[in-house]
Design goal:
With about 160 residues, this protein is of the alpha+beta class. The protein contains 4 helices and 9 strands. A hairpin with a 4-residue loop joins strand 8 and strand 9 (about 155-160).
């Protein structure tokens, strides 16, 4: 067993929001994540894994080898964000937790960005997007499909 080393060689940013100096390691995906994203990973139980603190936990050198080379973050993002639309911004340090949670849920649980066509129509000349999204219902326990129209100034979604 070895004491954790600071993230290096491509693993210096959170796999989900790109914030610097991630403090947690997800051993199931072999990725580094920041404190804010780690809270969400724990909450939604991404593959039911327990996150490891970079500062206090120990793990075998073999387990760290791929992650410290940056292959964990790069490989997982290449798969989980393969079809992340250009107009769908990558989350950042200042992203509110509810939006961050939605992104991480779509990235790992629903795997929305793993398949082409998750988002439907986009007109670059007008900035208008139209498609289907999932929104939690009033009872907050069930995700429901909603048609949406997004313009540079508004977002509308339709119940029926």
């Amino acid at each position: 067993m070895c004491q954790w080393l600071p993230a290096s060689q491509g693993a210096t940013n959170c796999s989900d929001c790109n914030s610097e100096n991630p403090q947690y390691f997800n051993p199931n995906y072999e990725i580094f994540v920041c404190r804010n994203c780690a809270q969400i990973h724990e909450e939604i139980k991404c593959k039911k894994g327990k996150l490891k603190s970079v500062k206090t936990e120990t793990l075998s050198e073999d387990r760290l080898r791929g992650a410290l080379s940056g292959q964990g973050n790069v490989k997982v993002n290449g798969r989980q964000e393969r079809f992340l639309p250009a107009y769908y911004p990558k989350q950042g340090d200042m992203t509110p937790q509810d939006i961050r949670k939605e992104f991480i849920t779509h990235k790992y649980v629903k795997e929305t960005f793993c398949t082409h066509g998750a988002f439907l129509k986009y007109a670059p000349s007008t900035g208008r997007m139209e498609g289907v999204l999932e929104k939690k219902g009033k009872d907050k326990s069930v995700w429901k499909l909603r048609h949406f129209v997004l313009t540079p100034l508004t977002i509308e979604y339709f119940i029926e």
